[in-house]
Amino acid sequence: YMEEAEALADRVGIIDHGQLVVEGQPGELVRQMGADVVTLAGNGDVAGLLGAVRALDFVTRVTEHAADGLVRVQIGVDDGERRLAGLIGAAAAAGFHVTQVNVNRPSLGDVFLAYTGADLRDE
């Protein structure tokens, strides 16, 4: 139902464990995520990766979640395709082994994941 909320609602709120964690206009919440979201999944020096990508001037947001033995780091950037090689290089230099990469334009579902750390289908 996130697509419907994004298209039809004037305001939305995201609740995590009974607490309102963010509220606003769907379009504004999506814009705060950055133009694109690059997700790097893998293992290794997570702290090193987080520090390295946060130091890059084109990075707008960094969130990290662990599940299924992998660490997933979502990175908001201005242009995911153009910045992908630099992000993978920063990960390798930091000692983080990337096993999965995904580049997406953000959606309200991405906002939900960023604020709760839970996929919409997680139980």
- Summarize the biggest pleated sheet: 4 strands, antiparallel
| Level-1 CATH class name | Alpha Beta
Strand content: 35-45%
The chain-level structural class is alpha+beta
Give the ordered list of helices and strands.
Answer: HEEHEHEEHEH
Rg from alpha-carbon coordinates = 15 Å
Helix content: 25-40%
Number of strands: 6
Mean pLDDT: 90
Q: Can you list the strand order of the major beta sheet? A: 4-5-3-6
Number of helices: 5
Task: Write a compact overview of the structure shown.
This protein is an alpha+beta fold and 123 residues long.
Polypeptide structure, described:
The protein is of the alpha+beta class. It has a single domain (2-116), classed as ACT domain (Alpha-Beta Plaits, 2-Layer Sandwich). It contains five helices and six strands. It has helices at residues 2-8, 26-32, 46-54, 80-94, 108-116, and strands at residues 12-16, 19-24, 36-44, 59-67, 70-77, 96-104. The strands form two sheets. The chain has a four-stranded antiparallel sheet. The protein has a two-stranded antiparallel ribbon with strand order 1-2. Helix 3 crosses helix 4. The radius of gyration is 15 Å and the shape is globular. It starts with a helix and ends in a 7-residue tail after the last helix. The relative contact order is 0.24. The mean pLDDT is 90.
